[in-house]
Design a protein that fits this description.
- By secondary structure, the protein is an alpha/beta fold.
- The protein has eleven helices and twelve strands.
- It has one domain: Metallo-beta-lactamase, Chain A (4-Layer Sandwich), CATH 3.60.15.10.
- The strands form two sheets. The chain has a seven-stranded mixed sheet with strand order 1-2-3-4-5-6-7. A five-stranded mixed sheet has the order 8-9-10-11-12, with helices on one face.
- α7 runs antiparallel to α8 and α8 packs across α11.
- The radius of gyration is 19 Å and the shape is globular.
Length: about 290
C-alpha cells in the first residue's frame, strides 16, 4: 500500500521539492483546555492533523504526521506538555498519520490502534520499518482511556476511509477527533483499495453527527476545527454527489461519459483540491456504485 503522504506529494506540481511544501515546525490551536490540534506551521503540510492531550497524569497523541517531522513534533509536544507523549492512538494506517510512530516510540510512547490498521502496516515494508513502527496494543471494536480526569472513548468505524478507522470522543471536553472521516470542506479520500467504502464513510460521518451536539468541536483529519453543522454540510454534499452519479449510471452512461458530463460541477469551486479533484471524486463514486 502506498503511503498517503507520497500520494499527496504527487498532487503538487512536478519537480516541487519537499522543502517547498513540507512543514518544519508545528502550530497549535487549543480546542478545549489541555486539548490541542497540531498542524504544519506557515501553511505547510505536516500530514494529517494531530491531537495532543496534556495533563498532570498522561500526555497523549492521536496520530503523528509525516516521518521526517518526528523531531519537530516531539519539540512541540514538550513545549505544550512539558514531556514526551505516553500514548499514541493511530486513526488509520496511512503514512501521513503514522509516519512518526517509530521515532516517538523511541522516546517512550506506546502505540494503540485497530487490529486491521496493524495488519495493513505490518504487510507494508514502507511502514513496517522496525520495532516501534507498529501499534503494540490493538482492539477490535472499542476501548476507553481514562486520562487526566476525563474519558477518551475510542471506537472502530468499519469500512469507511479504510477498514481500520478509529475516531476518539473526549466525552467530558465534548471534542471528537475524526481521523480521515472528515476532510473539512474538501472532497474526501475514500480508499477503496484499503477496505474503505462510500457507504461506510457516510455511515461513519452520520455516527459522528449523531453523537455530537451544536457545542461539539471536531478535530478533522484534514482541514480546520469544525462543528456539527460543518459535518452535516459535508455529508449532504457526499450524499448528493453520489445520487448525481448514480442517476447517470442508471441511464446507462459509461464511466468516461459520466466524467465528461461533470455531475459534480456545482461542488467544484468549494470542494475540489489537488489530491481528490472533482474528476477523481466522480470516478471513486462510479467505482463504488458499480462494485459495492
Amino acid at each position: 500500500m502506498k503511503k498517503l503522504g507520497f500520494l499527496l506529494l504527487m498532487s503538487f506540481a512536478p519537480f516541487v521539492s519537499a522543502q517547498d511544501w513540507m512543514a518544519t515546525s508545528f502550530e497549535h490551536t487549543e480546542v478545549s483546555p489541555g486539548i490541542y490540534m497540531l498542524s504544519g506551521a506557515d501553511g505547510k503540510m505536516s500530514g494529517g492533523n494531530i491531537t495532543l492531550v496534556t495533563g498532570d497524569e498522561y500526555v497523549v497523541l492521536v496520530d503523528d504526521g509525516f516521518t521526517p517531522l518526528g523531531p519537530a513534533l516531539l519539540q512541540k509536544i514538550e513545549e505544550l506538555a512539558g514531556r514526551p507523549a505516553d500514548f499514541i492512538i493511530n486513526t488509520h494506517a496511512h503514512g501521513d498519520h503514522t509516519g512518526a510512530n517509530q521515532y516517538l516510540d523511541e522516546h517512550g510512547a506506546l502505540i494503540f490502534a485497530h487490529d486491521k490498521l496493524r495488519s495493513r502496516m505490518e504487510s507494508d515494508p514502507q511502514q513496517n520499518t522496525g520495532p516501534g513502527a507498529l501499534p503494540i496494543i490493538t482492539f477490535s471494536d472499542e476501548m476507553t482511556f481514562h486520562l487526566n480526569g476525563q474519558e477518551a472513548y475510542v471506537f472502530h468505524v468499519p469500512s469507511a476511509h479504510t477498514d481500520g478507522d478509529a475516531a476518539i470522543q473526549f466525552r467530558d471536553a465534548n471534542v471528537i477527533t475524526t481521523g480521515d472521516l472528515l476532510f473539512r470542506g474538501l472532497f474526501p479520500f475514500i480508499d477503496l483499495d484499503s477496505g474503505g467504502s462510500v457507504g461506510g464513510y457516510k455511515t461513519g460521518m452520520q455516527r459522528l453527527i449523531d453523537m455530537s451536539n451544536d457545542a461539539t468541536r471536531f478535530i478533522s483529519g484534514h482541514g480546520p476545527v469544525s462543528t456539527r453543522g460543518d459535518l452535516q454540510q459535508d455529508l449532504a454534499m457526499l450524499i448528493d454527489a453520489e445520487a448525481r452519479v448514480k442517476a447517470l449510471i442508471v441511464k446507462g452512461l459509461s464511466e468516461e461519459d459520466i466524467v465528461n458530463a461533470n455531475p459534480l460541477a456545482d461542488y467544484h469551486d468549494n470542494y475540489n483540491w489537488g489530491f481528490i479533484t472533482t474528476e477523481r471524486m466522480t470516478r471513486t463514486l462510479i467505482r463504488s456504485l458499480t462494485t459495492e
